[in-house]
Request: fold
Amino acid sequence: MSAHLLRFADTIDDYAAARVAILGVPYDRTTSYRPGTRFGPNAIREASWNFESYLFDHGVDLRDIDVFDMGDTEEFGPVEEMYDEVHSTAGSAIRDGKFLLTFGGEHSISPPILTNYPRDIGVIVVDAHLDFRNEYLGWKNSHACASRRFADHVGIGSVMQIGIRSVAREDLEDAKGLDFIDAYYVADKGIDASIKRIEEKLGKKKIYLSIDIDGIDPAYAPGTGTPEPFGLSPLQVRKLIVKLSSRLVGADIVEVSPQYDNGNTAALAARLAREIIATRHPSYR
Ligand code: MN
Ligand code: MN
Reply:
């Protein structure tokens, strides 16, 4: 772990006592369009200080939930090095019984976290992009392959993506059994019907939640590498978090790219992180 002065708001100094662990992975080497998500973790941390610790809508004070900020991983070169190091760093926190909440970085950082969990869980991915290529620019662990790698671990029938509005033709090759909730379905039928589809597909499985911030409309989240119009609203994603909270085993928020941001994207990511943390309160279990 690198030394860090900046940490997420309302965290404690005692790793052993913490029930939630935050990890930053400032990695953006496979990014296809415009890099910059390496600056995401600290932008999210900085934005986290602007909020009240008491979330009246949850009836929860975040100071009553013990959260430890592990800081950032080292900066990695090749994607294989990142994959192995993130897998082992995340794995030690998960084995220590922490609810791990990771900030990217690009979406390629998420599969090595997931592979620490049992194969019988479900994965929910909030994303504009299907990310289902088997490889991209020669990399199997490119951010454009994130959901395909999730499916490698839990099976294609246990991954549900929501907010999709960008699908590459190659995404659909060998993708039998793939089922996703596109952004137009959410707009037409609403978030409750969408959550129902997720619940029908994933049954009673535990859930890992991966939030690619570009799943949310660029009007709310402009600070990202590949913005895509027609996205989800922040409140729809909040509802998804709250409704599924009792089944969550871990989560990440990725693809926040501060140099394209007016501050809103980092603030939204920080706020979504605080929603996830709030639902770790015993009153939610
Ligand atoms: Mn993605
Ligand atoms: Mn995306």
